[in-house]
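Q: Structure tokens for this one, please.
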Amino acid sequence: MAFVKNPNPPFPERFKPDWRDILELRVAIYRRLPEDLTADLEALIPWFIDKIEWSAHGAVTLTEEMKVCVAAEACLLIVRRSKDDYKQLRRVKFSPRDLSTFGEESKWAGDASRTIVRMGWYWTQIGMEDGEDNYNLTIHEYAHVLDAAHDGKSEASIKLGDYKTTREWLKFAKESYKRLCRLWDRDAHYKEPVIRKYGTTNMAEFFACATEAFFEVSRQLRLAEPDIYKWMKIIYGMDPAQWRERVDYRDLDELQSSYADTDRERKRKEADRRRMVQEAIRRYEREAREREEARRKSEKEKQCLEKERRELEENGIKKALEDIEQAHKKKLEEINRRYEDKVVQLDRRIRDAEVKFERDKKEAEQKLERQLSRIKWNLEKALAKLKAIEEEKPVKPKLEEIEEPEIEITRRGPKRRTVSRFHPGGLPSLKFTVVGHLKDGLFLRWDEEGDLREEMHYHLGEKNGLCTYYYPGGSKELEGNYVNDQRAGIWMGWYCDGKVKHKSKYLSGELVEWTKYMPDGSVQKFKKPGKLDKAFSKY
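A: Here is the predicted structure, written as tokens:
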């Protein structure tokens, strides 16, 4: 055609030839696209149309022309990006003018999320037909889809090549948004900003309006906001300011007339199709009448066939039924025989198992009797030995303090001695070392059953080092470190079964963090609750 640089450009796969005429006539931005970008865009349009679930309600009727125009402007945003930006987009809905909410018209021309886009067709057409008015509803709403594609948030958080570039863009977008708000808030200024005032609503609308300005008034945006224009080039991978109009407006009338001729041809083909369908219906009815007549004429043949069928039933079918019955009887006998064999095998296995069980039971009883006899003999022997020891050993007084020989550390320094205390039954109760009058070294404590319950380290009367508490039986109950008589570092607590009960952190004797692990698996965390002693007063 006369208005295209290349008069016969190749058509991509599944791209219909008449779509190009529709786009040249209806979409102003399409007429400015360079040839390489046009080819890539046309390749995406069939994919987008097949991917989306299209619908319309009200006075608007969904047509192929609507799908092609919207798909072209939507795919323009991702032609230099990736199809993954529209991965979660599923549905597109059209309203006649404004969006309808619960049967009433709202004030919004469109809205979008990452899964659905709703647009008023009246405003969509206005944005398509004028490519330099800084308003394009389709580009605006699909910019929202692009914004929310990866994280579900519409905050100008569009994904770029790497993390560093994305962070730089977010920082720049926030600063530019605040600056745009300040420009529009001024009472008087010599010139309005290129980005519409609607872009001051929030960060999402700022990004969508900036995208509109990038494609609609690219040269003005490059002059007024060069930094924003540079980032838009990085995001979309193209430079609209360098595009030139490919269409001669003097030839639009010719295109309009050719499009009208195409429409008349389409209507003529549709009328021919309807006429062919009617002829096919009449031909089908005629053939049906002929088949009915043939059926009536063949009634005698059917009677003959019925007679032959009855004869076959009397002769051949009876014999076949007898054969089948005999085969079933033989098969049933074989199944019964196999079943009886299986029953005999199971009975024999059950008897063998019972015999083996009785034998194993008898051997186990004999073994248990021998073990009990041995245990009884060892117990009597131990009791006799214990009785002899008790008769020879004098009874220690209750909580008697026994001092070991004093050991002099230095000639002039204090002496070190070990103190031991015992329970009334003779089992040790306490054991520790004293330097002068101060505890120094390892401190041990046992309960009346002889189980170790506490292990502590002292240095000149102050707790220093590892401290461990035990449950009866020897499992750990609590463990941590002391520094200068104050708890420090990480302290761990356990249940009787060995599972972690709580974990606490101390700084200079003060509890700064406490995590408690409940028996049901839940976790409770506390930070800076106060002093330590209240939380572990039982220790």
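A few notes: The first strand starts at residue 53 and ends at 56. The chain has twelve helices and 20 strands.
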